[in-house]
Amino acid sequence: MTAQDTEQFREFLRQLQREEHRPTPLNEIKNLFTYKPAGEAITTIRDVGISKIVQCLNVSEKSHVDLACEVLKICFDKFEPGEVIKNYTGHIMYLLRHEKSCVRKMATDEVFKAVALDQNLLPIPQFIDVFVAVAQLVTDTDIGVANKAILITSNLPSEAYPKVLEEMKIALEYNASSKCNAYEVIVNISSKSYELCKLCNSHGYIDHMISELQSDDVSFHLNVLELLTRLAANPHGIGLLKWQGALPKITKLIVELEHNRLRKLLYPGYMKFVETIAHRYPKEMLDKYPAWVDFIFEGFEDGKTRLPGTLDTLGLIGTTIEGKHYLASIIAEGHLGDPLSYTAHFIRMRNRHLIVGTTICAVNFFASLISVDKDPNARRSGPVDPRVTNKTKEWFMSLSSTPPSIETLFGICKDNYPEWRLAGLALLDAVCQHQWGEELVARTAGFVEYLLDRSTDSTKESKEAKYDIIKRLANSAAFDASIITRLNTHVEQGPFYSESALEVAMEEGD
């Protein structure tokens, strides 16, 4: 900027001394800097300073405060991320603690820009007070400010956390919303490393979270339980919960849930917690906490109300090879009943039931048990474990005896209800992951023709689902050469090929 521009800026700042006249010079400053190149503007801003603009925030008139914020933001935007914090640390600390939420938002935005670009842009020893001030804003009444504070505090360098976690405890003295914000930060930090997970625990946060499960505030209770579930989904988190002795405490709450007047509301949250851990460590956790198994299987006794949650949980456990072995063992024991027969009966009677969503869960449950592709630890090549092959075939055959299971599945895939048909295709895809499944499809009259018939599907989801199955079958040894040729042609054409579109394209080419 020219010397004349710099002098203009000084003059506008002098005019800010009279509060009633401030809007005019503030607007002049805004006009002066808005379209100036950053390099020119920064020189003048640094030479003259921003203190007098910051002082304009100390008034009750909201429009004046908003205008002063707008001017400061224009000035700040001329700087590279982090430079405002470095050059005006004192001002930023003041802005972070300002009574007006728009001011706090502007300050947190500046800190966020720096941390988002590079965690180490602001050295911890020099700027730890800034990070502490931001961490305390997780309690802010302005949701935008609180959410930005959560993002910042969740993504600091590790060396910041001993001090930040100590000072953030103030959040535990506030309301339920503030506590949940602090707990969310704790879960985010804990996911980074086992050391940080232990650090969070050493400050008492994990104990606090577990104690909150005594709350009669259902929304708060479920929010804390959801965060504990996220913590348990992380290897660091589940390790800490086991070491801390938290799982027996939560198991006790699950057992006592039967007599809790809020049972119906709390049930889904506890089921999700159990399924999250049981999915990853089925035998270890379910053998150690048999009350979890009883809790899961209660859904079969309850009937339709809790059955979808039970089926989803058992299906998630059954997606892994270890989970399949575990479910096979407890089903064989028989003292918990036969969930497969119950679920198969429910599927066969689908047309007589009004709760279509439950029957879809039942089909998806079978699909999860039979599929071997969803286990991240399973081998992606080579033969499937013969025990798994035999057990999945046995489970599928239990779906129906008259008509045969494959005929029942064929009927589901052709059903007029789109969501039901999609569930059937998911089960068919699981079946086709096995040689015995490919052979069943090959021997079922009309099944391959149905898959190749594009006119039977009107939705993108069903077209893609059938296409994925055809791709799988195109490599099968269960079909003769002519069928394989047709399958491969379909694969080459893609899921959304149509003869009419081809004809139009050819006519346009001519």
Automatic annotation (TrEMBL):
SUPFAM superfamilies, A to Z: ARM repeat
Any Pfam family hit: Proteasom_PSMB
Family affiliation: Belongs to the proteasome subunit S5B/HSM3 family.
Protein's recorded name: 26S proteasome non-ATPase regulatory subunit 5
